[in-house]
Amino acid sequence: MAKSYNFVEAPGHQIRRAHQLAVAIFMDETAAFDVTPVQFAILNA
């Protein structure tokens, strides 16, 4: 039987999860301003 893939040790999976958490925190913090991450990046530039 093949060993199942361990996502906990996969760097790509961990990077993706960190990104998902960062976006969720950003959305929570900026909800009152109705701004998306892309809009914020443009405004910041």
Protein model, in words:
The protein has 45 residues and is mostly helical. Helices cover 62% and strands 0% of the residues. It is built from 2 helices and no strands. The protein has helices at residues 11-30, 37-44. The termini are far apart.
Shape: elongated
The description of the largest β-sheet is: none
- Assign the structural class, choosing from mainly alpha, mainly beta, alpha/beta, alpha+beta, or little secondary structure: mainly alpha
The poorly predicted ranges are none
Give the % helix: 55-70%
Radius of gyration: 16 Å
Terminal CA distance reads 52 Å
Order of helices and strands: HH
Number of helices: 2
What fraction strand?
under 5%
Reconstruct the topology from this structure:
Blueprint: H1 11-30, H2 37-44
What key attributes describe this structure?
62% helix; mainly alpha; elongated; 45 residues; 2 helices
Summarize, please:
By secondary structure, this protein is mostly helical.
